[in-house]
Structures are given as C-alpha cells and as structure tokens.
Write a structure and sequence with these properties.
Blueprint (H helix, E strand, L loop, with lengths): L1 E7 L4 H11 L2 E4 L6 H10 L6 E6 L2 E3 L3 H11 L4 E3 L11 H8 L20 E5 L3 H9 L9 H11 L3 E2 L6 E3 L26
Parallel strand pairs: 1-2, 1-3, 5-7
Antiparallel strand pairs: 3-6, 4-8, 5-6
Helix pairs in contact: 5-6
Length: about 200
C-alpha cells in the first residue's frame, strides 16, 4: 500500500486539496506556519499503515499517470528513497554533472555527486519501514524549520547508498507560484518532466 501526503501552507490549501484528490491522498497543512521541515516530518509520521509514503509539496505538478508510474518505480527499487524531481537552476553545484548525465537519456541518475543527498523536496517516496530510523536521526540534528529540509530528510538513505532519482522526473515544480520563503526566481523547473499520459 502506498500512502500519499501533500504538505501545504494555508495560502495554497485549495491547490493542495486538488493534488490530494488526484492521488487519493491526505493534506498535511502547516496551519501555524511552523515551517517546511516539521510539516514534512508530520507527513512521514502519519503514514504508518503503508509500505511506502509519497510526499508532495503543494506546488508539485504530476505526470499524467503519476500513481501507476510511482508503483512501477517502487517495484524497481523498493528499498530506496526516490527523489521524484530533479530541478534546473538550484542547487548550482550539481547542475553541470546533471547536464552530462541526462545527455545519455538515462533511466536513473545514478552518480555519487547527485545521490549524496536529497536535493529537492518537491516530491519523494520513502519506504515506511525506514521512517522510525529517519525520524530518530532527524531528532539528533539541527531543527531549523526551513533550512535544508530536503537534505536532512534524505541523509539517512544517502549515507547507505539508498537514494535514487528516476529520470525523467514524475514531478515538476510550478514555477508560476511565488516562493513562500524567499524571493521568487524563475527557472525552478525539472530538467525533464515525464508526460506519460494526459495531465
């Protein structure tokens, strides 16, 4: 069983609930604006009755047959944390390496300079059996509510060689929405977004 969780701020609740309807998921609303990090943690902690949890941010754009695609990806790498979005522009350091990798049209972006951390929290899949260990490791780290949410969430799997990025990305980022945490810069989109079916 796959659980779907949409992390959202109140200003984007309507958009988040539309996403939730598409995937049969639940919205985890940051009612008090506690920050992205604690809201992602709440989303993970709420999925204890599933085998995997898919966490999507409220500005995610899904490929047309998203849930079927996610099932297929999990079947290929069931023990891995799957980063469902690979973004252009940010972060800057891995962009040249990503450009080299995607030129060969890979199925997975398997390179240690990419899989050393979860770089984008727009969408990811985590095996539920790993969540207690991940949460325990998070409790021992820095608890800033906004900074490096994706990096901290992905550290446990990355350290064990259990982080993968499928390509093209099943999730894109809605670049038309202004950031809720920083000045908006355009170009925050996927290198390639798989459009296997009608969106």
């Amino acid at each position: 069983m796959i659980a779907y969780r949409i992390v959202a701020v109140p200003e984007r609740e309507e958009q988040a609930r539309a996403l939730a309807r598409k995937v049969g998921g639940l919205v985890i609303l940051d009612v008090n604006h506690d920050g992205a990090f604690p809201n992602h943690v709440r989303a993970l902690a709420s999925a204890d009755n599933a085998t995997h949890v898919v966490v999507l941010e409220d500005d995610a754009i899904l490929c047309g047959d998203f849930t079927d695609h996610v099932k297929a990806l999990i079947a290929e790498r069931p023990t891995h944390l799957l980063g469902l979005y690979v973004g252009r522009m940010f972060p800057k350091r891995p962009q040249p390496m990503i450009g080299e990798l995607v030129s060969s049209e890979p199925r997975w972006l398997d390179h240690p300079q990419i899989t050393d951390r979860l770089r984008w929290g727009v969408g990811y899949v985590m095996p539920v059996k790993d969540i207690p260990a991940v949460l325990a490791a998070l409790e021992a780290g820095v608890q800033h509510p906004w900074i490096d949410t994706d990096g901290r969430l992905g550290r446990w799997h990355a350290e064990r060689g259990l982080l993968s990025y499928p390509y093209p990305s099943p999730v894109d980022h809605d670049d038309n929405l202004p950031s809720t945490t920083s000045q908006h810069e355009t170009g925050r989109v996927a290198w390639e977004h798989c459009q296997k079916g009608a969106a």
